[in-house]
Write a structure and sequence with these properties.
Length: about 150
């Protein structure tokens, strides 16, 4: 089974809680090709692609796969506006116009749609409720793809 892990450094305590979980999952046959977090753990397995959440703003230095557009019409109005509100936490100075917020969402959806098509995970493990710039669009795409 393939598993994508979204666990930030706040969830990785000094004992390496999430690293221990990932290690145990790998021992019982899980493949973990992708991990999203704030800081790359020093003991990160070599075969895991690590995506630092700060890279999400520009979607740079990330997983290389064929770009496949996501159909924005699959989102409900509430899902769309939830993301726009999520960006309020990142926009402390009020400089994100609607057009930028719209573009960021569409870029995130396309990115995660492409990653999921390429990796074809069986499951996504979130350490917290998806509510950030990267994990909420990942959640939305995964939910739509079931």
């Amino acid at each position: 089974m393939k598993l994508i892990v979204s666990a930030d450094s706040l969830s990785i305590d000094k004992d390496g809680f999430w690293l221990q979980i990932v290690s145990k999952l790998k021992k019982i046959g899980f493949e973990i090709p992708y991990w999203i977090g704030l800081d790359k753990p020093s003991a990160m397995p070599q075969d895991v692609f690590f995506h630092e959440t700060i890279d999400a703003y520009k979607l740079v230095n990330l997983y290389n796969c064929k770009k496949e557009l996501f159909d924005i019409d699959l989102l409900t109005t509430d899902e769309y506006y939830n993301y726009l509100k999520i960006l309020d936490r990142a926009d402390l100075l009020g400089g994100y116009p609607f057009s930028l917020r719209d573009r960021l969402l569409k870029e995130q959806l396309t990115y995660w749609h492409s990653v999921l098509l390429d990796i074809k995970p069986d499951c996504i493990l979130f350490s917290v409720i998806p509510h950030a710039l990267t994990d909420y669009p990942l959640y939305l795409v995964a939910q739509k793809k079931k």
